[in-house]
Design brief:
- The structure is a single chain.
- This protein is of the alpha/beta class.
- It has two domains: 13-28 and 76-265, von Willebrand factor, type A domain (Rossmann fold), CATH 3.40.50; 35-75 and 268-305, no CATH class.
- It contains six helices and 16 strands.
- It has helices at 95-109, 135-144, 169-180, 205-214, 231-241, 251-265, and strands spanning 13-15, 18-20, 35-42, 57-61, 64-66, 68-72, 79-86, 115-121, 125-132, 187-194, 217-224, 245-248, 269-273, 284-291, 297-299, 303-305.
- A hairpin with a 3-residue loop joins strand 8 and strand 9.
- Helix 1 packs parallel to helix 6 (251-265).
């Protein structure tokens, strides 16, 4: 089993069993020489396309063509996965099914070299299992997830939370990306079971998206909600990071969504390029990955942040 201590760029403090955001100190950034894109390609019938070569792809940054310097179609590259489970009151009636489906998903997807962690979020963000390849540890962590509706009030800590307590969805994405996945290499993904409704986080949606983008993390969201949830938020978070949103209404939908994610994670191409724009301005740069065959569509992240030093 491999675990990593949290070296905080956010000063995570533990309160009431949860992870709490604090004021960020000055950040240290490492120059990005190669921008890596992990892409899934589908045809016009939404079927996965395999067997493509480097010459089949075109990449541009802020409208400027880029030369591909690295390409791989290797499907067995290790995956580092974060499983995030919404344990707020809105998930009460589906939590049991979510845990069963999540357990089966990890058992099916994980192969030698893969690592996974489990987090839950409600009024707090809780790390239930750090990165490991031990299925027993992961299964026990998933089974420990339980509904927490709590009460109102103020969370005291490095930064006092003055608004009403609520679901810390954005904080969970931010912490999972920034504090856990930033230190991992290769393919990284978050799989989140939630209604995508947030009313308690200290960070906002854009902060969560940026944290995932800066750490090259793909976010897949299984939207589990009796009332439909916040599809606009879920779709934006998934699409901006190169992931997908699945609307889940029953056990069959859960199993199908997990299976689709499994297929996509094992059917990705890696496309890398050295940006022609060498400025260290910290700005967001838009990426467009296309196929020469216009019947094909590549699903990947839409951009990244340049270093700012």
């Amino acid at each position: 089993m491999r675990t990593r201590a949290i070296v905080s760029s956010l000063c995570i403090a533990s309160l009431a069993g949860g992870l709490v955001l604090a004021a960020p100190p000055p950040q240290v950034r490492v120059e990005v020489n190669i921008v890596n894109l992990f892409a899934t390609v589908r045809d016009k019938n939404k079927a996965i396309v395999t067997g493509l070569k480097q010459d089949d792809f075109l990449v541009s940054e802020d409208g400027q063509p880029q030369e591909i310097s690295y390409f791989s179609a290797e499907s067995s590259l290790p995956v580092t996965l974060g499983l995030l489970i919404d344990t707020s009151g809105s998930e009460t009636y589906l939590l049991s099914a979510e845990k069963d489906a999540a357990t089966r998903f990890l058992q099916r997807i994980m192969v030698k070299g893969d690592l996974a962690m489990v987090m839950s979020f409600d009024l707090d963000v809780n790390l239930l299992a750090d990165f490991t390849d031990n299925h027993d540890v992961l299964n026990r962590a998933i089974n420990r997830a339980e509904i927490n509706t709590g009460g109102g009030g103020i969370v005291e800590g490095p930064i006092e939370q003055t608004r009403p307590l609520g679901t810390n969805f954005y904080d969970a994405v931010y912490l999972a990306s920034k504090e856990k996945l930033s230190g991992e290499a290769g393919r990284k993904a978050l799989v989140i079971l939630t209604d995508a409704e947030d009313n308690g986080s200290k960070v906002n949606l854009q902060d969560a998206i940026e944290a995932a983008q800066r750490t090259d993390t793909v976010v897949h969201i299984l939207l589990v909600a009796a009332d439909g949830g916040d599809q606009a938020v879920a779709r934006r978070l998934a699409e901006e990071t190169g992931g997908r949103m699945f609307v889940v209404r029953n056990d069959k939908d859960l199993r199908g969504a997990f299976e689709q994610i499994n297929i996509e994670l094992r059917s990705q191409y890696t496309v890398g390029y050295s940006p022609t724009n060498k400025k260290h301005d910290g700005r967001y740069r838009k990426i467009k990955l296309e196929l020469k065959n216009k019947d094909y569509t590549a699903l990947t992240r839409r951009g990244y942040y340049a270093p700012n030093y």
